[in-house]
Amino acid sequence: MLFGEAVRIALASLNANKLRSLLTVLGILIGVSSVVAVVAITDGLDRYMSEKVLELGTKAFRLQRMPDIITSHEMWMQMMKRKRLNMEDYEAVKKACTLCSEVGAQVWTGSNVKRGRTIQKNVGIAGVTENISRIGTIRELESGRHVVQQDVEQAAMVAVIGTDLRDAFFGMMEPIGKEIDVDGHPLRVIGVAEKKGVVFGESQDNFIWMPLTTFMKLYGARRSFSIQAEARTMAVFEAAQDQVRVAMRARRHLTYNKPDDFNIETGESVMELWQTMTRGIYVVTFVVTAISLLVGGIVVMNIMLVSVTERIREIGIRMAVGARERDILLQFLAEAVVLSLLGGTIGIIFGYGVSKVLGKIKVFSQFQTVVSPGSVLLAFLFAASVGIFFGFYPARKASKLDPIEALRYE
């Protein structure tokens, strides 16, 4: 028997039992759609994270009190025991890092900002050195100017604002030269930063930059600094970090056998942590998928055994007119594979649809889900493998029937 003829007979058999065939493939459908949807979302997130990390600048790194991501309450309590980074640390790093083209600092808090009766809530308020906008990816301005060294030296009451504040307070008016109220202190707007949009539902434009000295005058010096640096070239990127690390360990009097009590974060370290997290998602997904496919495969095998029992007389007639064992084996194996591939195809379409629907939800709307050819091929291979593996036993059982006994079967 030719394979094409076996497939045609398989399709005719499945068409004769539409509802049973559809219910049979549900397990495979769920497993395959899970693979496609999760891989599409995770690949989209990976690309999105890569783009955002690149925006930080490939030669830039950051010295800070705590790591970017804290994974447990115990870790949080341990990190809280660390010393804060202060102005003296910034000056020491600036002096020590001869391989850095720029070393700057910033310190953050949050508050509501007012102008007249209009209140903008949850505004990020940062004190910055004059060069902070040049480290990493340059933050351009829509209008006005950045904080300059003279502003820092004089602790000038000036601010660069994000477009969220511009839109809330000024609308179509020119904001440069106007005043806003920051915790009861009037600050004059000197610049408006270009719009960056939203990352994971969080606006990147709801902020104020003021000179670092102004921030310390308004809020005190107890908050920990974040020290930003940029290596002269990628060739000295690691060496520049080492210079910063050595300077900080010397300031903290850390012996060789003590770990760092500060963190140096780079775009690469963020991506490595992200990929470690998504690897766990992949593992959980494939475990769930494997269970779904196992259940689906068992259902396929049971249905095929029922099909063999129902068609014993048909098998006997085929053998009587010349069908060989391998022809019967191929016929029922083709039926199992077609059944599995049908579930796989529907699963791929369903998984693609789920990934697109999730992409419309606010939390996922900032990135594009990616259904790659690799994930589609993997889904097809899973489905075909289930059909071959779980369909072989019923097919072999059918091929081993005695023709005489099969013809007598009622």
> What's the arrangement of strands in the largest beta sheet?
2-3-10-5-7-6
The parts where pLDDT drops under 50 for at least 5 residues are none
Please give the number of β-strands: 12
Tell me the strand percentage band: 15-25%
Characteristics:
single chain, 410 residues, alpha+beta, 6-stranded mixed barrel, two-stranded antiparallel ribbon, 14 helices, elongated
What's the structural blueprint in terms of helices and strands?
Elements: H1 3-16, H2 18-24, H3 26-55, E1 60-64, H4 73-80, H5 87-96, E2 100-115, E3 118-128, E4 141-144, H6 149-154, E5 158-161, H7 163-169, E6 179-182, E7 185-193, E8 198-199, E9 202-203, E10 207-211, H8 212-219, E11 226-231, H9 237-252, E12 263-266, H10 267-310, H11 312-320, H12 325-360, H13 373-399, H14 403-408
Parallel strand pairs: 3-10, 5-7
Antiparallel strand pairs: 1-11, 1-12, 2-3, 2-6, 2-11, 4-7, 5-10, 6-7, 8-9
Would you write up a description of this structure?
By secondary structure, the chain is α+β, with helices and mostly antiparallel strands. It has 14 helices and twelve strands. The strands form two sheets. A six-stranded mixed β-barrel has the order 2-3-10-5-7-6. A two-stranded antiparallel sheet has the order 8-9. A hairpin with a 2-residue loop joins strand 2 and strand 3 (118-128). The protein is elongated. The relative contact order is 0.19.
